[in-house]
């Protein structure tokens, strides 16, 4: 066995060809790392990365607004769609020689050519800021084919120009100047970016958001690349701040608010500044737009975690204190936040973002900061605004019931597949022959007798009949398991084929119209109410989509002379007699039920699309909360609410149909 002696320090080492040696190590200097690996600094060279150049320069300008030295930001997109200019009326970047630069360069040149050189590392120049890493300006410079900076400072207009990150000369005075400020014009390098044209709509949206986040800020966007039909100059200024932003978010998403007013919170102390606005809507998702020092945090972070904690504990605390959870209902944090839309704007001294793109906040202490500020404020607001609080509680319980209904339905009912629409259909269903949902309708008919007449009198091509036996289950009082175990209700769900609860998908509905066909007496009205309660609680999208109807069968047949009339109730019967009674002998027949009608008569009066009368079931936006409360009070387990209703409205019942 032979042994080799290791080389002494300084002695030459023989490296085989292709091996890994000292010469394999590349040292990138200046801004070369940015051009070599741009994705590390802007996330990529696609559309998002390209526009990140804009956000870096824009954030520097807005930092002057945050610090209280600027009020206006001008953004100009040149006619070529690639050259962008951002100007603020702040203090103007320093142009004098930097005292610690060994090369004797100006501070302006250091800012735009040296990574991690900026005024946001210490708290002297800025209390809070969006540009923190000291790389924004230099990264934009490195990735631009040309960049030019104008600074108004000390009564002089200074200028410095760069090409692909390298200065074309030093700072020069090019004239006199009034006021102060900084203007940066740059053009992305087509050697870095496959596409260098900016999207004016993307820029305009970000500019408008900035104007919401900073009250008093005016942003002017001039778009010379726009067509004549488009607005070339747009001015953004929103004195309402994030509250106005929240209103616009809800309006843009076409959401229905359940509150008359927003919850808002503003706090400013040594820990930072917090602005919060939130509201609940009828949407099934939750949307939170969060910002830190004016930077949108699309991926959330610890500040959003603190907000979620505050909302969950405040609302749950209010519900538990007032004992508002119905028996059999279990609430989850997701139920509490369902439908929430919120805007959170946070300003802190030392934010720790995840990466240079700043999409997520990582400061662990911020979670407690936000939760500690928002939770007691929201809990106090709920106790001081009982009407708003009750609307939120109703919304939360509604979300919990829908979730539990979906879970129970998942194991009890399998949704019909569009490829096999006639699987799992109930045996009592007399289906129509047409397979086009747009022209078909399903009648839910009270009783086998009426169902038999309807089956004989219907149009078999487009009309399906599902008889129901007796009074169906009260879905408001029964638990989800009982609902899913009920034969009549599961038959309805199987016939419809669109799922149930949160899984209800109107696009999978097998019929365009679902028509409740009950007797025109008090029992029929009761059954209709029970069915509507089931549809409201478990199949709400069908009501919202305009698919649910109430048939209006006649209660009376009125023969006057040789003419026959049909009346849905006593008032209509009396009006017919008063109007036509002089024309001949009056004979009145009161139907005890739809089963007494001949199939031809039932078709003519109730089924024929050309002559029948249908009532579409709708819930107006302004009546949604009242509808929820009415269903809960009149159909729920608490008898006291029904007793109060009967006692306060007893005088309205002139005659009872018993």
Total helical elements: 20
Instruction: Catalogue the unreliable spans.
Output: 23-28, 118-134, 413-423
**What is the CATH class designation of the largest domain?**
Alpha Beta
Query: Shape, please?
Result: elongated
Overview of this protein structure:
This protein has 658 residues and is of the alpha+beta class. It has 5 domains: 32-236, Histidine kinase-like ATPase, C-terminal domain (Heat Shock Protein 90), CATH 3.30.565; 241-404, Ribosomal Protein S5, domain 2, CATH 3.30.230.10; 418-554 and 603-618, Rossmann fold (3-Layer(aba) Sandwich); 556-590, no CATH class; 626-653, no CATH class. Helix content is 35%, strand content 19%. The strands form 4 sheets. Strands 1, 2, 3, 4, 5, 6, 7, 8 and 9 form a 9-stranded mixed sheet that branches. Strands 10-11-14-12-13 form a 5-stranded mixed sheet, with helices on both faces. A 5-stranded mixed sheet has the order 16-15-17-18-22, with helices on both faces.
Summary tags:
about 650 residues, alpha+beta, Heat Shock Protein 90, Ribosomal Protein S5, domain 2, Rossmann fold, 5 domains, nine-stranded mixed beta sheet, five-stranded mixed beta sheet, 20 helices, 22 strands, about 35% helix, about 20% strand
């Amino acid at each position: 066995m032979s042994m080799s002696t290791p080389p002494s320090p300084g002695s030459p080492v023989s490296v085989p060809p292709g091996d890994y040696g000292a010469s394999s190590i590349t040292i990138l200097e200046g801004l070369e790392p940015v051009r070599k690996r741009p994705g590390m600094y802007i996330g990529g060279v696609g559309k998002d990365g390209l526009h990140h150049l804009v956000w870096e320069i824009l954030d520097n300008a807005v930092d002057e607004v945050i610090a209280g030295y600027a009020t206006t930001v001008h953004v100009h997109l040149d006619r070529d769609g690639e050259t962008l200019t951002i100007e603020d009326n702040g203090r103007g970047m320093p142009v004098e020689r930097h005292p610690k630069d060994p090369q004797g360069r100006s501070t302006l040149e250091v800012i735009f050519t040296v990574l991690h050189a900026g005024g946001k590392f210490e708290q002297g120049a800025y209390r809070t800021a969006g540009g923190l890493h000291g790389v924004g300006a230099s990264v934009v410079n490195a990735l631009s084919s040309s960049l030019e900076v104008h600074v108004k400072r000390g009564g002089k207009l200074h200028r410095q120009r760069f090409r692909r990150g390298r200065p074309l000369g030093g700072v020069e005075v090019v004239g006199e100047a009034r006021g102060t400020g900084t203007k940066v014009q740059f053009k992305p390098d087509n050697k870095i970016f496959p596409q260098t044209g900016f999207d004016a709509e993307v820029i305009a949206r970000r500019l408008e958001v900035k104007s919401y986040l900073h009250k008093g800020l005016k942003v002017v966007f001039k778009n010379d690349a726009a067509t004549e039909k488009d607005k070339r100059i747009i001015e953004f200024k929103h004195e309402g701040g994030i509250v106005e932003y929240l209103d616009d978010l809800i309006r843009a998403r076409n959401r229905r608010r359940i509150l008359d007013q927003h919850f808002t919170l503003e706090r400013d102390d040594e820990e930072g500044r917090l602005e919060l606005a939130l509201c609940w809507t009828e949407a099934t998702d939750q949307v939170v737009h969060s910002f830190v020092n004016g930077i949108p945090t699309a991926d959330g972070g610890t500040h959003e975690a603190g907000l979620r904690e505050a909302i969950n504990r405040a609302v749950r605390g209010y519900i538990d204190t007032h004992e508002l959870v119905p028996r059999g209902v279990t609430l989850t944090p997701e139920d509490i936040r369902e439908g929430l839309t919120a805007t959170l704007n946070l300003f802190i001294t030392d934010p720790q973002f995840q990466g240079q793109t700043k999409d997520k906040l990582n400061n662990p202490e911020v979670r407690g900061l936000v939760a500690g500020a928002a939770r007691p404020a929201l809990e106090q607001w709920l106790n001081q605004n009982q009407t708003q609080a009750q609307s939120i509680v109703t919304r939360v319980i509604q979300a919990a019931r829908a979730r539990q209904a979906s879970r129970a339905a998942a194991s009890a009912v399998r949704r019909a597949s569009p490829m096999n629409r006639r699987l799992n259909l109930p045996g009592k269903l007399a289906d129509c022959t047409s397979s086009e949902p747009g022209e078909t309708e399903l009648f839910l008919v009270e009783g086998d007798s009426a169902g038999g007449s309807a089956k004989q009198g219907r149009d078999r091509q487009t009309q399906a009949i599902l008889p129901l036996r007796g009074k169906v289950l009260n879905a408001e009082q029964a638990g989800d398991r009982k609902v899913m175990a009920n034969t009549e209700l599961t038959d309805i769900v199987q016939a419809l084929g669109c799922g149930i609860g949160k899984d209800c998908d109107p696009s999978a509905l097998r019929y365009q119209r679902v028509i409740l066909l009950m007797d025109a007496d008090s029992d029929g009205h009761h059954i209709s109410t029970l069915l509507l309660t089931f549809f409201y609680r478990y199949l709400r999208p069908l009501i919202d989509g305009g698919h649910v109807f109430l048939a209006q069968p006649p209660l009376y047949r009125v023969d006057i002379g040789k003419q026959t009339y049909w009346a849905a109730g006593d008032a209509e019967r009396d009006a017919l007699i008063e109007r036509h009674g002089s024309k001949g002998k009056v004979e009145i027949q009161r139907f005890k039920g739809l089963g007494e009608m001949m199939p031809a008569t039932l078709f003519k009066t109730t089924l024929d699309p050309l002559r029948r009368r249908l009532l579409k079931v709708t819930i107006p936006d302004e009546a949604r909360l009242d509808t929820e409360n009415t269903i809960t009070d009149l159909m729920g387990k608490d008898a006291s609410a029904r007793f109060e209703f009967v006692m306060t409205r007893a005088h309205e019942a002139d005659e009872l149909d018993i």
